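Sample entry was shown:
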Amino acid sequence: MDLFGVTITLPTKTIFAGEVSSLIVPAERGYLGVLAHHAPILAHLKPGTITLHDSSGKVLNFTLKSAGFLEVSGNKATLILDSLELPS
């Protein structure tokens, strides 16, 4: 299983930084899936669920409460968000 880096950042702190096998985000035109070695992309995000499958196979779900941005480049995904509800 190929992994790639993901960083989730809020204005005041980094919420997640690690390796994952997949990422699903609520993009403006529907949910977008990202796997390792994804082509470069920049996407506007809308409120919804962000799902990560981490390197151990654990699934993490975050609730995006407002808009944000996703950048994928160089086998790394960066999410820049205004507000996020952490998994319980």
In short: The longest strand covers residues 14-27. The chain has one domain: 4-85. Strands lie at 4-9, 14-27, 30-34, 41-45, 48-54, 59-64, 68-73, 76-81, 84-85. Residues 4-85 form a domain with the ATP Synthase; domain 1 fold (CATH 2.60.15.10).
